[in-house]
Amino acid sequence: MRPAVPVRPSETRSTCPYCGVGCGVIIESADGQVTGVRGDPAHPANFGRLCTKGSTLHLTASPAIARQARLLTPMLRDERGMAPRAIGWDAALDQAADRLHRIAREHGPDAIGFYVSGQLLTEDYYVFNKLAKGLLGTNNIDTNSRLCMSSAVAGYKLTLGADAPPACYEDIDQADCLFIAGSNAAWAHPILYRRIEQARQARPHMKLIVADPRRTETAEGADLHLPLLPGSDVMLFHGLLHIMLWEGWTDAAWIAAHTEGFEALKAVVRECTPERVAQACGLRKEDLFTAARWFATAQATLSLYCQGLNQSSSGTAKNAALINLHLATGQIGRPGAGPLSLTGQPNAMGGREVGGLANLLSAHRDLANPAHRAEVAALWGLPSVPATPGKTAVEMFQAAADGEIRALWIACTNPAQSMPDQATVRRALARAEFVVVQEAFATTATCEAADLLLPATTWGEKNGTVTNSERRISRVRPAVPAPGEARDDWRIVVDLGRRLESRMGRTPDRSLFPYDTPEAVWNEHRESTRGRDLDITGLSYALLEQAPQQWPYPPGAAQGRARLYEDGVFPTASGRARFAAVQPQPLAEPRNSRFPFSLTTGRLRDQWHGMSRTGTLGRLFGQVAEPCIEMHPWDMERQGIAAGELVQVTSKRGSIVLPAQPSPAQPAAQAFIAMHWGSEFLTGVSAGGEVLAGVNALTTSAFCPDSRQPELKHAAVRIEKAALPWTLLALAWLPDDTALAVRTQLQALMRQFRFAACVPFGRERSGVLLRAAADAPAERALLDRIEALLDLAGPQGLRYDDPRRGQRRVVRLARSGEEARVEGVLMAGDTRAEAWLRPLLEQQLPAQAYGRMLLAPGATPALPVPRAGPQVCTCFDVGEAAITAQLARCAGSETQRLAQLQGTLKCGTNCGSCLPALQRLVRQVPPLRQAA
Predict the structure, then answer these.
(1) What phi, psi does 420 have (nearest 5°)?
(2) Do domains 582-718 and 871-924 have the same CATH topology?
């Protein structure tokens, strides 16, 4: 027989599904499976670079993960609380159409709400919008982009006249001053931050200013860090403008020629003196003057900003106050200058383009504008579209909790993790009589509340377009067939829409959904933009096949426009930009004597949103392994809280329990919890039986009156020691094709503890970790169940059990000759041995020398166990201990020592996401002293 010829992988150009940078990727596939991914060197958003998340996309698409995590067939829950059963697509869509039609007939179309996602493609978004506003006649369709970008939308419209970011990524390369506000770009937008690092190397005179309460890795690398107090952004920006006016650093000629409303703004900022602003923001006056001078006098200043400004009860004012600075100094409409909002999701911009928000219509039309409504109705062939304002995200779930909205259709998002005030969200999901979840992953918390589950395609399987932060439209292409019975989101909506039309008496020849391809949807969306600020009627799928393009792209254009307003003309009635005389506003709930800590939230470097995708990979938990709350060391010492000790964090809305960790990056009287930790990874119950479900059990649903974006970034909290004396730690290596399923089963047990966290770990192998605590020892049956799930109960296990003292230890060993390695551990009642037993397991070190100590409570071995420390480099699995040890042997300048480190350990030489951390360690670790 001839030897089999290896199959050469196919290559498909597509786009990363994570942040709004919009990186191009090349997907490698063979035999219908994704086998690899790399950055697309021809894509202008990333030029071949990928971050830790993007570079591991192929691992999240493995067959083992698909079998354990993906929703593969429609599922119907006959009664709440019961397990769902599989049904066919026809039955599922008929069920959905019948129930929506009945609810609309009996209670009106506004009894239905659609909650969709910035991770949908533009084509998906368009048909959802048409289904709700066109066919059903309700404006109750909103998106999770409301939680991240609506303040940026409102800020642009208030000042510049349209939701159109005026700058582009190329401006980073040409800026002389970068002003980053409310963004930890080093973690949230790593590839964009690589470009910033590269630009600073090429332009050593460039100044980087970072305004952020925390000393993040982005702030750590800045020339000037402004650690302002939470919520004081408007006061800061007004204070900078006050100084610019006083010092004569504004551009009076540009203001006179291209703006209006400056006198009203001057009256507001007159009171924002350096002394007052320094006190209100917690900053030094000298730093205010430095920031104002660098911003105003640079040849070109570019601002980059994100959720720190947007997720606020005064988010629109914060955005507008920053844009005011650009208008006052003429820093807009030219290379290297302008206010550039960084979108958090891959297609938040595309959703805005098609009107996928409750207050918008297609092509940036306003729902409140009768002429705009008439234009859309004519395009869709309808007599009218509804004028009644739709419910925005927070309002929609409140209305469902109150019984006003009776059906919720949720697509590609996980509100049971991501929405603020989780008690209200869960009440809404329980009270709504019909909940549909259209989702790729079956493991999200929202799936538990669904009456009907519809399997959707995801990255690597979808076909359409997305728009990134710089208005660049990229193609998303399928590399492999959809698994199971999963369908494209646009196709699900079209099939549902046609069924609803049949029930509503609309004949097929008059269908609103005449699409058989995503390109047909896109062509209609394209036509809706004709003559609008985002006109793309000169663009086609064929042109997008050649290269991504920015909008606008009108007929006759050879390429899209890189930056806007170069002629100084703005899309307002007067053609002038408008200064916004916004007033500083207090936080929705300032800290006080009852809730003395300011809790802020944000992203981790290696995780994405609710972690339905990244949370399937243990290697992405190397940098931050488990949920925690970060506090200033002084605050922990003052309250007698040791590192790793459990604390109860309480706000007006609820409580959660989790470990505390000291962080010098955290200011005093402030605390930080990553936004990713939902009930899938962190949960428990109170003494009264109330479920404590993730970080958003704490956050407030108070929102900006203009953008309706909630203040997810800040809540006033109380932090106290949690008196939970009985603790449990269980972790084990498991087969790749069962580990995720085991974790899902363990998550079902987490609510039997006051505190529980369950996460994956491991790089080349799949591990699962469960940590828990309670007032009293857990029932033996519960411990037996955990043992069985982690495969610790077999003959290979060593066991110590003392029911009277509530203690148990089980160690599973794998033996090879004389050598033994720890494969799994359960410690109940006494978990002090974690310090040495866990490294033995995770680093797969020989364990035979530890003998009986493996079972001895409280024992500390004489043989030290080497510890890698926190992971710094995900690509090459390099820990902090190895890096600091190597740096101690390196001499020379910081640049030389970094190069020596990279040459030896390779860290920071692949995706570059760890470079800010490496640079920080280079500064911290003293160099090797050369002999005289």
Answers:
(1) -75, 165
(2) no
Task: Report residue 88 CA to chain centroid gap.
Answer: 33
The topology (CATH level 3) of 150-341 is: Dimethylsulfoxide Reductase; domain 2 (3.40.228)
Cβ–Cβ under 8 Å, residues 656 and 695: yes
The CATH number assigned to the domain with range 582-718 reads 2.40.40.20
CA atoms within 13 A on the CB side of 514: 11
Q: Give 583-587's long-range contacts (Cβ < 8 A, gap of 24+).
A: 583/234, 583/268, 583/317, 584/232, 584/234, 584/235, 584/238, 584/272, 584/280, 584/314, 584/317, 585/231, 585/234, 585/313, 585/314, 585/317, 586/231, 587/230, 587/231, 587/313, 587/711, 587/714, 587/716
- pLDDT score of 346 more than 90: yes
Predicted local confidence at residue 11, as pLDDT: 97
Q: Mean pLDDT across the stretch 105-115? A: 98
Q: State CA 791 to chain mean position distance.
A: 34
> pLDDT per residue over 502-546, tens digit each?
999 999 999 999 999 999 999 999 999 999 999 999 999 999 999
- On whether the CB atoms of residues 568 and 161 are closer than 8 A, the answer is no
- Topology (CATH) of 75-148+347-550: Rossmann fold (3.40.50)
**Could you give the CA distance from residue 553 to residue 540 in angstroms, rounded to a whole number?**
10
The residue among 868 and 504 whose pLDDT is bigger is 504
Per-residue model confidence (pLDDT) at position 3: 53
pLDDT for res 470? 98
Q: CATH code for 871-924?
A: 1.10.10
Q: Are strands 24-30 and 33-39 parallel, antiparallel or unpaired?
A: antiparallel
DSSP 768-800: EEEEEEESSPPPHHHHHHHHHHTT-SSTTEEEE
Closest CA to 312 of 142, 185, 180, 151: 151
In whole angstroms, how far apart are CA 482 and each of 410, 461, 494, 759? 20, 6, 18, 27
Residue 693: band (very low, low, confident or very high) from pLDDT cuts 50, 70, 90: confident
* Average pLDDT of the chain, as a whole number: 95
**Its pTM surpasses 0.90:** yes
Rounded Cα distance between 770 and 911, Å, is 30
* Amino acid letter for position 897: R
Measured over the CA atoms of residue 589, residue 591, residue 594 and residue 596, the dihedral's sign is positive
| Sign of the C-alpha dihedral computed for residues 849, 855, 861 and 866 taken in this order | positive
In this prediction, residue 851 has a pLDDT band, given cuts at 50, 70 and 90, of: confident
Residues 188-231 have pLDDT tens digits of 999 999 999 999 999 999 999 999 999 999 999 999 999 999 99
Asked if 669 contacts 591 with a C-beta cutoff of 8 angstroms, the reply is: yes
What per-residue confidence (pLDDT) applies to 2? 55
Model pLDDT, residue 4: 56
Q: Which residue ranges make up each domain of the chain?
A: 10-69, 75-148+347-550, 150-341, 582-718, 723-867, 871-924
H/E element, 840: helix 834-842
758 in Cβ contact with 768 (< 8 Å) = yes
Please check whether residue 393 is in contact with residue 366, taking contact to mean a CB–CB distance below 8 angstroms: no
CATH code for 10-69?
3.30.200.210
Asked whether the beta carbons of 430 and 452 are under 8 A apart, the reply is no
SS3 (DSSP) at 378: helix
Alpha carbon separation from 902 to 770, 873, 914, 921 (Å, rounded): 35, 11, 11, 13
Q: Give strand ranges (E) for 695-847.
A: 714-721, 726-734, 755-761, 766-774, 797-802, 807-816, 819-828
Residue ranges of the alpha helices (H) in 31-85?
57-60, 63-69
Relative to beta strand 577-578, strand 259-260 is parallel
pLDDT tens sequence across 127-162? 999 999 999 999 999 999 999 999 999 999 999 999
- Residues near 417 by Cβ (< 8 Å), separated by ≥ 6? 444, 445, 446, 610, 678, 679, 680, 694, 696
